[in-house]
Amino acid sequence: MRYQITGMHIDIGDALQTHVKDELGAALQKYSQRPTDANVVFSKSAHEFVCETTVHLSTGLTAAAKAHATEIYGAFDACAEKLDKQLRRYKRRLKDHHRDRAVPVELSGASSYILASDLDSGDAEPETLQPIIVAEMETKIPSLTVGEAVMQMELAGAPVLVFRNEKKDGVNVVYRREDGNIGWIDP
């Protein structure tokens, strides 16, 4: 497994890197015997340390967790615990997913834009209806079944997921509704 352990404006020592590799490796070994890569980013927010972990499974699914604590080791341990809980919750589905899928998830490229918010203008009418593009990025759209898309959304902790439906070969959306249920848009 490949690890990328970084600190944003924080010096990450060898002891912390060893701790992250050991703990994360042990947690992931229980749920996935296939090679994966993990990205762990430490940062500081006021008096707390923040740990953000993203694990890419070999089948294309991604699990993510984020935690805060007053100590850096505590932040990682809380983050690893959240990740372990997510993977434990989906262990059966992940194992079924490995069996059903012989090849990794296919990813398609797409453009992603960040638009300027109209909150700065107050109550004034905008001069134009064309939004101002703040940033443009490349994103990937996975080719999944609806069940896999819901699982991916839950694992990543995302409120919405755009995916290409393998069964109907069209772009679909799953999202978390305000009532706690999952919505699915199939145009």
Model description:
The protein is built from 4 helices and 9 strands. It has 187 residues and is of the alpha+beta class. It is globular, with a radius of gyration of 19 Å. The chain starts with a strand and ends with a strand. The model has no long low-confidence stretch (mean pLDDT 82).
Q: pLDDT below 50 for ≥5 consecutive residues: which ranges?
A: none
What fraction of residues sit in β-strands? 35-45%
Question: How many domains comprise the coordinates?
Answer: 2
CA gyration radius, whole angstroms: 19 Å
Largest sheet: 5 strands, mixed
Quick description:
This protein has 4 helices and 9 strands, in the order βαβββααββαβββ. The chain is an alpha+beta fold. A hairpin with a 5-residue loop joins strand 8 (170-176) and strand 9 (182-185).
List keywords for this structure.
single chain; 187 residues; alpha+beta; Double Stranded RNA Binding Domain; SHC Adaptor Protein; 2 domains; five-stranded mixed beta sheet; 37% strand; globular
